[in-house]
Write a structure and sequence with these properties.
Shape: flat
Main location: membrane
CATH class: Mainly Alpha
Radius of gyration: 18 Å
CATH topology: Four Helix Bundle (Hemerythrin (Met), subunit A)
CATH architecture: Up-down Bundle
Order of helices and strands: HHHHHHHH
Number of helices: 8
CATH superfamily: CDP-alcohol phosphotransferase transmembrane (TM) domain
Protein name: Phosphatidylinositol phosphate synthase
Pathway: Lipid metabolism; Phospholipid metabolism; phosphatidylinositol phosphate biosynthesis
Cofactor: Mg(2+)
Oligomer: single chain
Largest sheet: none
Number of strands: 0
Keywords: Cell membrane, Lipid biosynthesis, Lipid metabolism, Magnesium, Membrane, Metal-binding, Phospholipid biosynthesis, Phospholipid metabolism, Transferase, Transmembrane, Transmembrane helix
Number of domains: 1
Helix content: over 70%
Distance between the termini: 29 Å
């Protein structure tokens, strides 16, 4: 769903991409820096309960996920290695975000939400793997209610608002995300099934 906003975000990031391109910065460097920033923000702030600040830091570095693509197109340096690196490090960033939340919930004794956050992490990985595996088999799997951008939006907004004192928003966001991720995994499995099994 958020793919509709990608052109606007790309236009906003183009001046920064041009500046980096003039300096010969590699898109892969931006990818790595973005992942390190997400991990540092999530694991440095979330476990200490600094949810708003952590969400702001993470959001800044998540934009690198779009900036590296803009930069690659400008330099004409898009590659199979770059696509692999980007997708792989996306999983690292996601793991850091939910791990930070899990550590926070465990420190506060909220094992229920810790388990929900863990489910979101695992379900999100299944959603991503289903698409990657399907495409590796030559199939299409570009379907789903909650893709990575939607999942990040929900968790970062919920965590940020929770950090500002909005009650129950993080719990609601995680339960919603858990349901949406499970539904999306089911959508992708069914989509592949319909392509591979005669009805």
């Amino acid at each position: 769903m958020l793919k509709l906003l990608r052109p606007a975000v790309t236009r906003a990031l183009t001046p920064l991409g041009q500046a980096l391109a003039r300096r010969g910065i590699s898109p892969n460097v931006i990818t790595v820096i973005g992942t390190l920033g997400v991990a540092a923000g999530a694991l440095g702030f979330y476990p200490r309960g600094q949810l708003f600040l952590g969400s702001v830091v993470i959001t800044v570095f998540v934009l690198a996920d779009l900036l590296d693509g803009v930069l690659a197109r400008m330099l004409g340096s898009g590659s199979t290695w770059g696509a692999f690196l980007d997708s792989t490090l996306d999983r690292v960033g996601d793991a850091a975000i939910f791990s930070g939340l899990i550590l926070w919930f465990m420190s506060t004794g909220d094992t229920v939400l810790a388990c929900v956050a863990l489910f979101c992490l695992v379900a999100g990985a299944v959603v991503s793997y289903a698409k990657a595996r399907a495409e590796g088999l030559g199939l299409t799997c570009d379907v789903g209610l909650a893709e990575r951008s939607e999942r990040l939006l929900v968790v970062l907004v919920a965590a940020g608002l929770s950090g500002l004192g909005v009650p129950y928003i993080l719990a609601a966001g995680l339960w919603l995300l858990a349901a949406a991720s499970a539904f999306t995994a089911g959508q992708r499995i069914l989509h592949v099934y319909r392509q591979t099994v005669p009805i």
